[in-house]
Amino acid sequence: xxxxxxxxxxxxxxxxxxxxxxxxxxxxxxxxxxxxxxxxxxxxxxxxxxxxxxxxxxxxxxxxxxxxxxxxxxxxxxxxxxxxxxxxxxxxxxxxxxxxxxxxxxxxxxxxxxxxxxxxxxxxxxxxxxxxxxxxxxxxxxxxxxxxxxxxxxxxxxxxxxxxxxxxxxxxxxxxxxxxxxxxxxxxxxxxxxxxxxxxxxxxxxxxxxxxxxxxxxxxxxxxxxxxxxxxxxxxxxxxxxxxxxxxxxxxxxxxxxxxxxxxxxxxxxxxxxxxxxxxxxxxxxxxxxxxxxxxxxxxxxxxx
Length: 305
Known about the structure:
- By secondary structure, the protein is mainly alpha-helical.
- It folds into two domains: about 1-180, Orthogonal Bundle (Tetracycline Repressor, domain 2), CATH 1.10.357; about 180-305, Up-down Bundle (Four Helix Bundle (Hemerythrin (Met), subunit A)), CATH 1.20.120.
- The protein has helices at about 25-35, 40-55, 60-85, 85-90, 100, 105-125, 130-150, 160-175, 185-200, 205-210, 215-220, 220-240, 250-270, 280-295, and strands spanning about 180, 300-305.
- A two-stranded antiparallel sheet has the order 1-2.
- The longest helix has 25 residues, at about 60-85.
- It starts with about 25 loop residues before the first helix and ends with a strand.
- Pfam families: UbiA (PF01040).
């Protein structure tokens, strides 16, 4: 649930610096900058996935809302802490699309927002129960550890595996009825997280290297990472197809087939044209297919002990 920076301009345009404008327009730009710093797309995906898991696991409506709110608060804290801690690095490489670089928001604003969101996450998570609350807080702490330094080590993949793997475990435990998360669900979610991490680094490899970031994808290099990302994501798709009891249905088999085909294409392009953006785009497509599969299989994420 910790995230690399999105290399594209947010909302299709560069954020403009606000210089002394305390009016409504200035406030709107600052709010927009704060929203951009949450990394809204992946934050929304994780939050919606938590809601889908909650509904699929049969949580009462109020518990589903509580779980979703806890995950949303955690995602806000992770996103804001990422841009806060990366502010100096983003300035060094001229990331004008980042709100801290353009001057729309300041690192101190993001630090305050991250800590407030983290406090809300603690309260909301523990409100679901001690065990589920601790599971979710462990996932959020893992994501923060990525932002705080693990992103620059060979273990950069580990927070993604831990945080994504713990997400369905938290949701199922929040039901409070003695059920636990199905093993295939945790494994598939962990693979989804690791694959998304490796793929998401691809557009930023050169900028990261320039500022001393040497995570696993950087050490493997662009060509190897362009192959590894879709392979890991395709493995997650296969796990989702084979994991639920009763065997896969036609839709799941079809989605897995498309995911594997896209992964093969991404790997081939990655080997032949490592600087192409196609491996990243295809890997993100495989990740999206995995999310769809998880949504379709949400009613099988919980099992009795």
